[in-house]
Design goal:
The complex is a heterodimer of chains A (266) and B (253).
Chain A (H helix, E strand, L loop, with lengths): L1 H5 L1 H11 L1 H15 L8 H21 L4 H24 L8 H7 L4 H31 L6 H29 L3 H15 L20 H13 L6 H25 L3 H4 L1
Chain B lengths: L3 E13 L7 H6 L17 E13 L4 E5 L6 H9 L6 E7 L2 E4 L12 H11 L4 H15 L14 H12 L6 E4 L8 H17 L2 E5 L3 H7 L2 E6 L2 E7 H13 L1
Parallel strand pairs in B: 3-7, 3-8, 5-6, 6-7
Antiparallel strand pairs in B: 1-2, 1-4, 8-9
Helix pairs in contact in B: 3-4, 3-5, 4-5
Classes of the chains: A mainly alpha (266), B alpha/beta (253).
């Protein structure tokens, strides 16, 4: 029992979950504030994706001699999911040292609280973009698999949990060591090319299994595969779970030890 | 519920990271080297300031404690420790009771949001629900006296108006343990009179008050106990009037 009373990671998780109202309201407000004075708001991004993905689809399906219908759903879903995941990764380093630093120094909310606020904002944004995937799939495939009803919420949940764990872990490291931020920002653009977002694994031929060395493969795949009607891939789900447990381990290691130091780092 | 805060042998060290020590490259290149600087021990290339040293004190229910000391003596650090923003480096702190701190008021404001929205934002960050905020909103609106301007974005406010809004949106929390840092210089004469009255009211409702200020006559009229601090240490604690005499005595020497 004493572990549960003394461990600040657990205390902060409990606090953040109890105060779900506060961070969800704040995220929702951040979203509204971000798109204040625009007419289309978060759908501007949707429009942008729709335009570039359609153009890319026309071009690439011609170059690679692909069936454009099949490729269209693949590209749209991959692109939109990638936007969410990469935004999470890019935002992670300054979660504590950015805007939240003045909150952390002024009020005794646990740092984890601000991670929830930030991750939930990205999640809300993604929920605005998700209907576009569904629309494209419905239009092209004339239907959607029933299994999406449980695989999609489960996939979203797993990505959200991982986003929070990743943001805490990287946020703490980069609050202490300021090199992490530029490192991550320079790694993300090439990651887009290395992840099966724009291309399909089978295009790699005999090297196709190499995609499983890339953690982003799992997070893109876990929502996409079922949504666009690809075959069920057990490796994706197992891989995601392994990454989740790994991140939980790192989280407890770092946060229990160092969360009280964050206020001095930011 | 009876509020109480017990401090036992509390020490707090501040690591100071300059641009150099925050870099990972520096950490790698300094591996194995011993760096000697003026300020105490040093294992990561940063300096350490001793913020609080060996503080033992018990705040009991009903205590109104004044914090005395010149700038940099550790008053704000102690308040932030009591609030739970800082954790002690060594020693222990035990706290029972809800805390309301007015230390850096005005956090949680967004420049693009209106006055109304900022009142809601900052109070929700403090842990209130929207319904609770709606209940206290009329009081805050009346208190700040900004009228029409509450519908304008914060960036159009003057600094005095921002300070008014910051103070007003912090007042409505029901205090148990109340921690206040010096701040009475907000706004014009009329408003600072009003805010003083409000704070006095909040102070008398609090179960424990810890109040840092340089206004000795004000401290005398509010507080029943006082702590005198110097260089992060408690150098005197006792009755307010005696502590003030002691505090004055330091400077007359």
């Amino acid at each position: 029992m004493s572990f549960f009373h003394k461990n600040c990671a657990i205390n902060d998780i409990v606090f953040s979950l109890k105060n779900y109202y506060a961070w969800s309201y704040l995220s929702y407000f951040d979203l509204r504030l971000k798109y204040r004075r625009t007419f289309l708001g978060p759908w501007w991004v949707v429009l942008g994706i729709a335009i570039s993905a359609t153009a890319m689809c026309l071009l690439w399906s011609t170059i690679f001699n692909l069936d454009w219908k099949n490729y269209l759903t693949y590209l749209f879903s991959g692109f939109i999911i990638w936007m969410w995941i990469s935004q999470q990764v890019i935002d992670a380093p300054d979660v504590f040292s950015g805007v939240a630093s003045k909150y952390i120094r002024a009020y005794p909310n646990p740092p984890l609280f601000y991670v929830f606020r930030k991750c939930f904002l990205s999640f809300l944004l993604f929920l605005h973009h998700l209907p576009l995937i569904v629309l494209v799939v419905l239009f092209v495939n004339n239907g959607i698999e029933a299994s999406v009803l449980y695989s999609l919420p489960l996939g979203l949940f797993l990505i959200f949990i991982n986003a929070i764990l990743f943001t805490v872990n990287v946020g703490m490291l980069s609050a202490r060591y300021r090199d992490i931020d530029p490192l991550i920002k320079s790694l993300m653009p090439p990651m887009l090319l290395l992840t099966p977002v724009l291309w399909k694994p089978e295009m790699l031929g005999e090297y196709a299994h190499f995609i499983y060395f890339n953690p982003f493969t799992y997070f893109v795949g876990i929502i996409r595969n079922d949504l666009i009607g690809l075959d069920f891939d057990m490796v994706i789900w197992i891989g995601t779970l392994i990454i989740t447990f790994f991140q939980i381990f790192i989280f407890f290691f770092l946060y229990s030890k160092k969360s009280k130091r964050i206020v001095f780092w930011v | 519920m009876q509020s109480q805060i017990i401090l036992k042998n509390v020490c707090l060290d501040f690591p100071v990271y300059d641009a150099v020590s925050l870099s990972f490259r520096n950490k790698v290149s300094n591996m194995g080297k011993v760096i000697v600087t003026r300020t105490t021990k040093n294992n990561s290339g940063g300096k350490i300031i001793k913020g609080l040293r060996d503080i033992n004190y018990i705040f009991n229910h009903g205590d109104k404690v004044a914090l005395l000391g010149h700038n940099g003596s550790g008053k704000t650090t102690l308040l932030k420790l009591l609030a739970g923003i800082y954790a002690p480096t060594s020693g222990s702190i035990q706290k029972t009771g809800e805390t309301n701190c007015m230390l850096d008021i005005g956090f949680g404001f967004e420049q693009d949001a209106t006055g109304y929205e900022n009142i809601i934002l900052s109070n929700i960050t403090r842990g209130l629900t929207k319904e609770q905020v709606d209940k206290i909103l009329p009081e805050i609106v009346e208190f700040c006296g900004l009228g029409e301007f509450l519908n304008m974005p914060l960036r159009t406010y003057s600094s005095g108006m921002q300070a008014r809004l910051a103070f007003s949106s912090a007042i409505a929390n029901t205090p148990g343990i109340l921690l206040i840092d010096e701040f009475f210089s907000t706004g014009d004469i009329e408003f600072s009179k009003k805010s003083k009255k409000k704070v006095l009211e909040m102070m008398s409702n609090s179960s424990i008050l810890v109040f840092a200020s340089h206004d000795l006559s004000l401290l005398k009229s509010i507080c029943n106990k006082a702590i005198c601090m110097q260089n992060g240490k408690v150098i005197y604690s006792g009755e307010t009037s005696e502590a003030i005499e002691y505090y004055k005595g330091i400077y007359e020497k």
